[in-house]
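Subject: design request, 346 residues
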């Protein structure tokens, strides 16, 4: 399996390199950076010393990258990935693309343009949304995968069983989610400054975060009808981890056992979804550095609401891990390959 990573100097690129170092089948051909070409990657990320000491190439090498690779992971800001995807697939129509950003996540390009404020220049209707547990059979056939966002992975996994089984009022969904700061990438900004973050928690992009239309599109497809949600993200002073707490009104007469059955039926056989059951409390630390999503749910008899909670590592199940899970599925490699490590604890 010959693969390359475009945008290897970002946090998701570095996490791909960390995880792929333990992948017995993937051979990394090219890794790229536009700001630091020719630099050995372990000089930028010393934790990769002995695991990946490759010198960075750049997009000037895209002809060779596209021709020689079977798959290209793209870890670039939105708007840039689709240009790389467009050029790479023109050079080699057989190369598979796994984009970690938003450019291939939407079937409705108007919604993408409305929320991301850039024109969509590679409109591939056949691109597959890479939430592996929900779309495995399509991922298997895909040439291009749009890997989901981090908040969306946790929130959709928490709500999908309830939506799919028709157990909740679709107009009542509220998602309250918290993310570690690596979710914002490696670039410097005032918001990710230690003194701004430490000993503090804040909400941001209330009623306007870009993961809102992504969650609505996927849950709407599962429900077979359009829906709208409230989604409020929060920044917390940790490096990794997302905790997504999701609320919805249960339909009249839905029993707690019916809620339990919806979760077991969708995820009972899923290795990377660990069901903590009714009354379970997922903890981000238990998923740290791994591709697991831990799920627990509660039924509040007083309010008639169900509260579903998901914990993931934003850089793994929320990005690089799920991207490798998708690569494994696309190339008929056992799905856990390179991803079956225990969490670092405490
Ligand atoms: N961080 C997270 O938890 C998650 C991130 N994502 C998405 O994955 C993608 C990568 O995120 P992340 O790794 O966090 O981002 P970073 O900001 O950490 O890294 C961005 C990467 O893109 C490159 N880059 C930046 N600007 C340009 C440009 N104009 N042209 C070409 N390359 C550029 C940088 O390379 P260099 O400067 O060396 O050229 C770097 O390798 C984004 O789309 C993000 O939204 C998705 C899920 C989770
Ligand atoms: C903490 C933080 O800033 N998180 C990022 C989401 C990261 C992610 O999943 O990004 P994309 O969907 O854009 O690929 C944010 O809120 O924009």
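Subject: RE: design request

Done. Sequence follows.
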């Amino acid at each position: 399996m010959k693969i390359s990573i475009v945008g290897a100097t970002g946090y998701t690129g570095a996490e791909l390199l960390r995880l792929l170092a333990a992948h017995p089948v993937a051979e990394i051909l090219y890794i790229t950076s536009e700001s630091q070409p020719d630099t050995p990657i372990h000089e930028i990320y010393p934790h990769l010393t002995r695991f990946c000491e490759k010198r960075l190439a750049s997009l000037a090498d895209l002809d060779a990258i596209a021709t020689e690779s079977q798959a290209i992971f793209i870890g670039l800001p939105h708007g840039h990935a689709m240009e790389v995807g467009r050029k790479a697939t023109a050079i080699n129509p057989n190369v598979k693309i796994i984009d970690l950003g938003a450019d291939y996540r939407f079937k409705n390009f108007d919604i993408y343009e409305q929320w991301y404020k850039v024109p969509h220049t590679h409109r591939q209707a056949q691109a597959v949304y890479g939430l592996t547990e929900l779309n495995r059979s399509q991922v298997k056939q895909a040439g291009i995968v749009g890997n989901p966002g981090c908040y969306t992975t946790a929130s959709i996994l928490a709500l999908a069983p309830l939506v799919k089984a028709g157990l909740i009022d679709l107009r009542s969904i509220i998602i309250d989610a918290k993310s570690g700061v690596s979710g914002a990438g490696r670039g410097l900004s005032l918001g990710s400054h230690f003194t701004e973050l430490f000993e503090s928690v804040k909400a941001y992009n209330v009623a306007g975060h870009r993961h809102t239309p992504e969650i609505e599109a996927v849950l709407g497809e599962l429900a077979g009808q359009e829906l709208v949600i409230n989604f409020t993200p929060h920044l917390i002073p940790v490096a990794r981890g997302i905790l997504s707490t999701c609320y919805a009104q249960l339909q009249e007469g839905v029993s707690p056992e019916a809620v339990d059955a919806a979760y077991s039926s969708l995820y009972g056989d899923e290795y990377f979804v660990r069901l903590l059951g009714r009354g379970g409390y997922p903890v981000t630390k238990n998923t740290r550095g791994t591709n697991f999503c831990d799920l627990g749910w509660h039924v509040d008899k007083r309010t008639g609401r169900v509260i579903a909670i998901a914990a993931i590592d934003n850089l793994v199940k929320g990005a690089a891990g799920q991207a490798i899970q998708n690569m494994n599925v696309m190339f008929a490699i056992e799905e856990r390959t390179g991803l079956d490590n225990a969490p670092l604890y405490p």
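The first helix runs from residue 11 to 20.
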